[in-house]
């Protein structure tokens, strides 16, 4: 069975792209077949893995456009997938930024991505979707296509407050479109154990949500290495494999797998 996980938060700069890449590669190191889908018109995921969006002919944008035109469009999977660092990438380009407008008048528009993802499920154990920082049609599509959501939250007060809107959207999608959608967990990112603010935010999140939403034990520490890696077109595992942040993402991958084992019992 393939599990589809959306990495989502409508606030930018909380580590969604870094988490998608690093969790995906960590899962592949645990012998899982992983696909990453870049669902942000800024194409940061694509660029972070060393690919220039303007030079790619076959992207998620093309797939969505083709499915808008023809609901039964047959996907040539090998044409769209890029293999890199032990995972597969379905890249994005800037054209994705305008796709939401094209989706507005499309019949069954909330299910377009779900039907695309379904065609790839037989190839992978995990599909991770890097969502854009908004709660528009593309993010709704990601939530409809997914089994669960990981919410990265920067250890700052405003980032924590912004999470409420996403939780409301997840609740709405679960109630109206995707009854199987679950919250995989809240992931604390850019955590600085030297500051009282980081400690306070972690404590408040555990007190506020810990009784009904999993807060991952793995926290992602603030790190210059994780900020430098994308400029080299590399993941943290190629750029600084022995760093503390790389080990934190490996720990997160084990927690995600442990979640699956608990649910299967």
Walk me through this protein's architecture.
With 265 residues, the protein is α/β, with parallel strands linked by helices. It is 45% helix and 15% strand. The protein is built from 12 helices and 7 strands. It has a 7-stranded mixed β-sheet with strand order 3-4-2-5-1-6-7, with helices on both faces. A hairpin with a 2-residue loop joins strand 3 (82-84) and strand 4. Helix 1 (16-29) crosses helix 12 (244-264) and helix 6 packs across helix 7 (137-145). It is globular and about 55 Å long.
Summarize this structure as a short list of keywords or feature phrases:
265 residues; alpha/beta; 12 helices
Q: Give the DSSP E fraction (strand runs of 2 or more residues).
A: 5-15%
User: On the 0-100 scale, what is the average pLDDT?
Assistant: 91
Q: Evaluate the radius of gyration.
A: 17 Å
- The class by helix and strand makeup works out as alpha/beta
Any low-confidence stretches, pLDDT <50, length ≥5? none
Could you give the count of β-strands?
A: 7
Would you list the SSEs in sequence order as H and E?
EHEHHHEEHHEHEHEHHHH
So what's the overall shape?
A: globular
Largest sheet: 7 strands, mixed
CA-CA gap between termini: 15 Å
Q: Order of strands across the widest beta sheet?
A: 3-4-2-5-1-6-7
Summarize the amount of helix as a percent range: 40-55%
Total number of helical segments? Answer: 12
